[in-house]
Amino acid sequence: MLNDNLEIYLLLLLLLFVLYLGWKLRKIYKNIIFFLNKRRGKKAEKKAIKLLKKNGYKIQNYQPIAKGHVLQDNEKIHFDIRADLIVSKDKKLYIAEVKTGASASIKEINTRRQLLEYSKVFENNNLILIDTEKNKIKKIEF
């Protein structure tokens, strides 16, 4: 009887250890994915800057921050947003967003919403979506 209880406790302890180990491995995995995505984003931004310069754009500001606000129950809620770049060409300023893969399409809902928010908060309807995988600069207007 005592031996059976000991086996149950050991099995429970083993199960808890395996669950803890799985949780820790998942955290490590998430950190690795975050790091790789961040590195991929930085590479895409460098590639986008080269593409923009090659096409006659001048970099005016890297990762500019704009202050925005919304009204919630008549209370002003402030927030900051950060675009990838502000660029110029032919005396016109553009808010530029760098994307890769499927998110580089204006059909992607999150990309579209992000660009619409930039348009509103930066008070500039001249937007550029840069697809670094296809080496394309797409002008977007709302």
Concise structural overview:
Helices cover about 45% and strands about 30% of the residues.
Amount of helix: 40-55%
The Cα radius of gyration reads 24 Å
Which segments are poorly predicted (pLDDT under 50) over 5 or more consecutive residues?
A: none
CATH topology: Trna Endonuclease, Chain: A, domain 1
Structural class: alpha+beta
Query: In order across it, which strands form the biggest sheet?
Result: 1-4-5-6-7
CATH architecture heading: 3-Layer(aba) Sandwich
The strand count comes to 7
Provide tags for this entry.
2 helices; elongated; two-stranded antiparallel sheet; 7 strands; Trna Endonuclease, Chain: A, domain 1; alpha+beta
Describe, in plain words, how this protein is organized in 3D.
With 142 residues, the protein is an alpha+beta fold. The protein has a single domain, classed as Trna Endonuclease, Chain: A, domain 1. It is built from two helices and seven strands. It has helices at residues 2-54, 109-121; strands at 58-62, 65-72, 75-82, 85-89, 92-99, 127-131, 136-140. The chain is elongated, with a radius of gyration of 24 Å.
